[in-house]
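== Item description ==
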Amino acid sequence: MAAKRDNAEPAAAALLARYARGERAFGPLQLAGADLKRVMLMEGQMAGADFSGADLSGANLVRAALMGADFSGADLTGATLIKANLTDARLDGVNLSRAFMDSASLSNTTFTEANLSGARLKGVRLYGTSLRGACLEAADLTGAMMAGADLTDARADGANLGGALLTGARLPNASLREANLSSAELNRADMAGANLEGAILFRTSMERVKLAGANLRGARLLECDLRGADLSDADMTGVELTGSTLSGADLSRADLSGVEFFGANLDGALLADCISDDKTRWPASFKKTEDKVAAPHEPPRSSSELKERYARGELHLSGARLPSAQLVGADLKRADLSDGNFERANLGRANLNSANCARVNFLRTSLIEASLISALLTGADLSGANLDGANLTRADLTGADLRGTNLTRATLHNANLRDALFNPTTRWPSGFDPAAAGATQKR
């Protein structure tokens, strides 16, 4: 190792001279312990290079090819690695605090005990990556793809993980205090014993997530999908679960003191030996059976029943089968209408702001001038529907079927159209580019 470091400075000087002459492809590099502060190596091809223990603080490595490189113990404070390819690289113990790594490829990379505090990692690919014991405090991981990643014992207090993909990820005993996990996908993730005190989770997908023994005190889990989640022995004191779905969830022995369940779905949830108090606010339709399992939910059977139950404060109205229903001007804001059937219904000028319409059948439904601000329409069938003049500002239409849909004069400001389907008969607002918005054309 000492010999490597002795040769590092001449090797670094030679590398920079070659780069200055216009070379970008470099063979195996031995730069362990080299002083490369604020170096410019943009688009350099340095696969397999040894940068262990090197000082690369402030370096520019934008779009650099660094597959399999060894950065263990290196200092990359404030470095820029935007769109760099670090697949299979080793970054154990590296200091990447305040680094810029947007859209970098980091699959199968190891970050064990790495310091990524305050780093910007928007849209990075971290599939199967090891971040065991890493520090991600105040890091920006918006839209990061981290399926199967290992964040055991990681510290991510105050981190922004909005829209991140964490399906099947391992986060046991991780600290995520006051972190933002809104719109993230945490299906089947292992978060047993994790600390999510004060965290914000809005419309987060957490189906079958493992949160046994977790600390969720004061967290906000609004309109989240927690079907089949394991929340046994969790500390949920003061948690807000407004509009969330917890059907089949295990809340055995959980502390539910002061929990807000307004509009939540607790169908078949296990509540054995859970703790509640006079500040626990249960759903309007809540009933607990003798075996301490929440009674099954009964969907509304008519449009009048739907409106009456909503007027009584009941938000959980999922599974309604109301084809051809007349709901013109209906006020259903924040209602859970998921998995319902409103085929050929008339919902013109209806207020569906922040409503959960995931997987709803709106085939040939009239939604003319309806207000769907921040509505959840993931997987909804809107084929042939009429949304002329509808307001879909900030609506989530991920995976929705928009083939033959009339969106003339519709407002789509900041709407999420990722993987939504459209065809040549879909009518868009003037000047709107569906492909640029993430929609996919399919006949």
